[in-house]
Amino acid sequence: MFVSQVSFPDNITYKHCVVIQLHVCVCLQWEEVSIMDEKNIPIRTYQVCNVLEPNQNNWLRTDWIPRSGAQRVYVEVKFTLRDCNSLPGVTGTCKETFNLYYHESNEDRESYIKESSFIKVDTVAADESFTQVDVGDRIMKLNTEVRDVKVMMRKGFYLAFQDVGACIALVSVRVFFKTCPLTIRNLATFPDTVTGADTSSLVEVRGSCVNQSEEREEPKMYCGADGEWLVPIGGCLCNPGYQEKGGTCKACSVGFYKAKSSDAGCSKCPPHSHSLRDGATVCDCHSGFFRADSDPPSMACTQPPSGPQQLISVVNETSVVLEWAPPRRLGGRSDTSYSLECLICQTGSHSQTGSKALLCLPCGSDVLFSPDQTGLKSTRVVVSELRAHTHYTFIVHARNGVSQASGAGAAQSVSVTVTTNQAAPSPVSSILVTDVTRHSLSLSWQQPDRPNGVILEYEVKFYEKDQKERSYRIMRTFSRSVDVTALNPLTVYVFHVRARTAAGYGEFSSPFEFATNSDPFPLIGEGVNSAFLLLSVSGVGILLLISAAVFIISRRRSKYSKTKQDSEEEKHLNPGVKIYVDPFTYEDPDQAIHEFAKEIDVSSIHIERVIGMGEFGDVCSGRLRVQGKREIYVAIKSLKAGYSDKQRRDFLSEASIMGQFDHPNIIRLEGVVTRCKPLMIITEYMENGSLDAFLRKHDGQFTVIQLVGMLRGIASGMKYLSDMSYVHRDLAARNILVNSNLVCKVSDFGLSRVLEDDPEVAYTTRIPIRWTAPEAITYRKFTSASDVWSYGIVMWEVVSYGERPYWDMNNQDVIKAIEEGYRLPAPMDCPVVLHQLMLDCWERERAERPTFSQILNMLDKLIRNPGTLRRTGGDRPTATLLESELGSEVCVSVLPEVCVPVSSVCEWLRSIGLERYGDTLAAAGYTSLDSLLALTHQ
Ligand code: AMP
């Protein structure tokens, strides 16, 4: 028998375990005994050792043990057990095990619990140790056995030990349950957690974020049955201004910041910023430095840029190219952008002080900026669609992301004031067809959106669509409409219209297509006889001519109007007529010159002497020997050194114009020298120089017929030019050259370009007022009809042997006098018919003036009938003369050819230049002059 004592210490701490305290033991048969342990420390034990008697049933029960939330409790029993073999005489009754029971109960003071209420946990045997008693010495072997039991039903439980005949000493009983201890994982705190009821069960636990942190993802862990935390999920991040340190979030120290909830640490404040307190989420900028809303806190604080530098403007007509250099200081940023302010300025007087100042208003929305007006990254902008001859101020602002924050956006700018030049008109935007017939199309259009000056005329270019632009025709008109006739029926035509101002031609409009139809006549009125219409339309005036020739002698002053239309039509509708091309329409002036003028090798020119002074330099005479041709005399105009690009262009443009003409009464261009300097224009040599000087030199030395011959030559040259749609604008005796055979040739094709230079100034000062038609002076309507006016003046100059028109009247008086109806009187000994022709040329209404074709016809008649030149202003008409005067006036005005004997319809038509209507008349049955005479209006 041995004695042992069961002791139940108050607090024994196990890792991850909570020990449930055991109190007093309730026992029967079991004895409480104090013994010494191995180290001779006294301990209390409960012992039983009834091994000699059979059927033992000794119970030892604990006090009520509170469950304390545990679901599974562990019972650790330390005991000693005697080996039955070591006890003599106990065979059959001695046992080496005991049983462990439990009973759940809410009642903490149950005095009596039936044995059957206990549930057996296990039979506990000593694993290997049996306590032996050696001679003289006691060897105590302590067994430790742990059993676990699920206790979930009640608040607590009782444990009981059943002895069935063993020799046992219970040294200690420890009851505990396991927990997963409080822990911090991923910045989340997980509380002390009791493990689950089953050995395999996991308890899901939600963590809570530590101070100054926020959930990144719900923090979760599982508490295993063993009290180990498993599978951490999610977690928390330190708040802005805090960083993780040892599982907690600590504030960033001064000079550091943290902007976001992140697992990153605090960062040092970026350049030009600071933080003065712990826990900064952003660093404040130093004074004078700024941060844009979009700037990240990690970015250095920056400054607005300084102003753009070196703003350069280049004006090109109504466009301005602005270029500048980036600001000297970009403020530490790379987002500098530019915006343009456009102001349209006028000089005005200050209302109070009266002093002159530039008054500026914002430009309209029609101004175009390329690539843009604001948000520019590049340092170049093309501003277009500006008004011509207008002052503009452009302010270029430089901005960056902090300009607004700094409140200094407007300060960083640079400005420039420019004045736009003249510009060609913008293209006509649309063409409408107002009438269509088999052979004609009536078109109209609106003025271009941006005329950029007074429109002088429109040019209509058209061609059959199938022909493309291989062969086209051109018409010019002053109005915004035109009747295009002599077209092919049922044919599609393509039309382009462009406008011309003093600045030159604008771009052609885009193509507009219109088709003629199959209607033979325009719908002039109902019930009109179609045959009559045919004659009326196809040969406007034929019937009038016939009627007048046979029945009446007309004295109408508007005698040229109808026939002028004919002639215009004739000019434009003759597909064979070559059309003058304005060299200023070529972008590259060299292209025009090489298209229209021959390059001459300078070695083939031999200069002899200076014969005059031209606008661009000396005019010399000399000889030209081109290989394979005989040597000829030439005049050589050269461009003096130090010329500008524009002067070069203007100088060569005269050759480009002249080179397009080929007529005995137009000065002939031999070629140009452009490949070496000086640049030269070589023309045929005119021995007698300019006509005005020549006549003055030979005052009164020529017969009227000779003078008329000279005038005829000039008229012929001018007809040729007007047929080519070239308007000379400066027709005057000084610009006519005379050769040794008294042949007069039109020269000087430079005035149009002079006008283009500066319409405002040149127009009034350089325009040859005395030679110019009133509508050209007032409205700049330069046309072949205004050239006819000038021709009338030339006639007067010729007949008066180089007298100055209007003598010494000043220009203003001349303009006023013409306006009031005054016309130059007939020079001395001037045939009446010639003065009448002059007066016709000076008709106020330009449509009433004769055409060059008519003038030419008239002069031809006069030359063929010199008698008509006999009567001068000084003669008194007799009755017979009156007859002939009437006759001659008819010749001049309406029926020039009727006075000339003709023998057939064809001959007659040819003599009046309308031979193309021969077939039409023949088809209508008019084959003889007699039949024509029988033709009536009906
Ligand atoms: P322009 O530059 O055409 O006005 O010429 C100036 C002067 O040179 C004229 O007034 C003429 O006297 C003279 N001149 C020009 N071209 C010729 C020429 N082809 N033949 C003779 N003299 C000319």
Automatic annotation (TrEMBL):
<dbReference type="InterPro" id="IPR013783">
    <property type="entry name" value="Ig-like_fold"/>
</dbReference>
<dbReference type="InterPro" id="IPR008979">
    <property type="entry name" value="Galactose-bd-like_sf"/>
</dbReference>
<feature type="transmembrane region" description="Helical">
    <location>
        <begin position="531"/>
        <end position="554"/>
    </location>
</feature>
<feature type="binding site">
    <location>
        <position position="637"/>
    </location>
    <ligand>
        <name>ATP</name>
    </ligand>
</feature>
<keyword id="KW-1133">Transmembrane helix</keyword>
<dbReference type="GO" id="GO:0005769">
    <property type="term" value="C:early endosome"/>
</dbReference>
<dbReference type="GO" id="GO:0005886">
    <property type="term" value="C:plasma membrane"/>
</dbReference>
<dbReference type="Pfam" id="PF25599">
    <property type="entry name" value="Ephrin_CRD"/>
</dbReference>
<feature type="domain" description="Fibronectin type-III">
    <location>
        <begin position="424"/>
        <end position="519"/>
    </location>
</feature>
<dbReference type="InterPro" id="IPR000719">
    <property type="entry name" value="Prot_kinase_dom"/>
</dbReference>
<dbReference type="InterPro" id="IPR001090">
    <property type="entry name" value="Ephrin_rcpt_lig-bd_dom"/>
</dbReference>
<feature type="binding site">
    <location>
        <begin position="611"/>
        <end position="619"/>
    </location>
    <ligand>
        <name>ATP</name>
    </ligand>
</feature>
<dbReference type="InterPro" id="IPR013761">
    <property type="entry name" value="SAM/pointed_sf"/>
</dbReference>
<dbReference type="GO" id="GO:0005524">
    <property type="term" value="F:ATP binding"/>
</dbReference>
<feature type="disulfide bond">
    <location>
        <begin position="84"/>
        <end position="94"/>
    </location>
</feature>
<keyword id="KW-0547">Nucleotide-binding</keyword>
<feature type="domain" description="SAM">
    <location>
        <begin position="900"/>
        <end position="938"/>
    </location>
</feature>
<dbReference type="GO" id="GO:0005005">
    <property type="term" value="F:transmembrane-ephrin receptor activity"/>
</dbReference>
<keyword id="KW-1015">Disulfide bond</keyword>
<dbReference type="InterPro" id="IPR003961">
    <property type="entry name" value="FN3_dom"/>
</dbReference>
<dbReference type="InterPro" id="IPR001245">
    <property type="entry name" value="Ser-Thr/Tyr_kinase_cat_dom"/>
</dbReference>
<feature type="active site" description="Proton acceptor">
    <location>
        <position position="730"/>
    </location>
</feature>
<feature type="domain" description="Fibronectin type-III">
    <location>
        <begin position="304"/>
        <end position="423"/>
    </location>
</feature>
<dbReference type="InterPro" id="IPR001660">
    <property type="entry name" value="SAM"/>
</dbReference>
<feature type="domain" description="Eph LBD">
    <location>
        <begin position="1"/>
        <end position="185"/>
    </location>
</feature>
<keyword id="KW-0808">Transferase</keyword>
<dbReference type="InterPro" id="IPR017441">
    <property type="entry name" value="Protein_kinase_ATP_BS"/>
</dbReference>
<dbReference type="Pfam" id="PF01404">
    <property type="entry name" value="Ephrin_lbd"/>
</dbReference>
<keyword id="KW-0812">Transmembrane</keyword>
<keyword id="KW-0472">Membrane</keyword>
<dbReference type="Pfam" id="PF00041">
    <property type="entry name" value="fn3"/>
</dbReference>
<dbReference type="InterPro" id="IPR027936">
    <property type="entry name" value="Eph_TM"/>
</dbReference>
<keyword id="KW-1003">Cell membrane</keyword>
<keyword id="KW-0967">Endosome</keyword>
<dbReference type="GO" id="GO:0030425">
    <property type="term" value="C:dendrite"/>
</dbReference>
<dbReference type="InterPro" id="IPR001426">
    <property type="entry name" value="Tyr_kinase_rcpt_V_CS"/>
</dbReference>
<dbReference type="Pfam" id="PF14575">
    <property type="entry name" value="EphA2_TM"/>
</dbReference>
<dbReference type="Pfam" id="PF07714">
    <property type="entry name" value="PK_Tyr_Ser-Thr"/>
</dbReference>
<keyword id="KW-0675">Receptor</keyword>
<feature type="domain" description="Protein kinase">
    <location>
        <begin position="605"/>
        <end position="863"/>
    </location>
</feature>
<dbReference type="InterPro" id="IPR020635">
    <property type="entry name" value="Tyr_kinase_cat_dom"/>
</dbReference>
<keyword id="KW-0597">Phosphoprotein</keyword>
